[in-house]
Amino acid sequence: MLILVSPAKTLDYETPAKTTEYTLPDLLEHSKELIQECRKLTPADIASLMKVSDKIAGLNAARFTSWTADFNADNAKQAVFAFRGDVYTGLDADSLSEASLRRAQKQLRILSGLYGLLRPLDLMQAYRLEMGTRLANARGSNLYQFWGDIVTDQVNKALAEQGDDIIVNLASNEYFKAVKPKKLNGQLITPIFKDKKNGQYKVISFFAKKARGMMVRYLVDNEVNDYDGLIKFNLAGYYYSEAESSMHEPVFLREEL
Known about the structure:
The protein is built from 11 helices and 13 strands. It has helices at residues 28-38, 43-50, 54-66, 79-82, 86-91, 98-107, 143-147, 150-162, 173-176, 205-221, 227-230; strands at residues 2-5, 10-11, 77-78, 83-84, 108-112, 116-118, 123-124, 166-170, 187-189, 192-197, 200-202, 239-240, 251-254. A hairpin with a 2-residue loop joins strand 10 (192-197) and strand 11. Helix 2 (43-50) packs across helix 3 and helix 6 crosses helix 10. The two termini are 31 Å apart.
């Protein structure tokens, strides 16, 4: 079972990672190309392109300038410990056991605008480059065109290495658009999380993101490797609804908090 998630805008390079083990991203040569394009942007360009404040634009311009492909433990951090945000709050990587972290390294992949596809222990330097960014480059007018089939090929490679044909998509639509479902060598499962509010079940972004992280945690902690195990997910009050679900879109409901 291979699990896909999105990255996060919020980063933490202050808290020490819980392990000194690390790997290096497989697609750094492509990242170098993107960085060269990003270095052409002024802070004003970044503010307009990414729709961020002048302060954040200045920060990211500085990050692009200082980025180097010579990754080490002093200038980079393992991705699963660097990303913060709702999904990563649900995952709570800092409390993973060594065994669960090893399983995550094998089963979990993080989609990234700059790095393409990251393993949890892949070192990365701080950046902000969302997959939906319309960054003109030698391969096209946006990052989807830049990455082309590369991310999909990496997903298929990771799927083959971990030994089965189930892909669990816990990424946002923006990031999963970097993957080409028709070219995947496996069956795709996209869990949906709905919370009851005012008498109706609906997807509430904040809760759904956190639930995606909790499902990652559930899958690696419990060594889940099939559909029957996945639909037993029951953390934080969520439960599987057979009536609402299809084989490829299992739905998990939670009563009003």
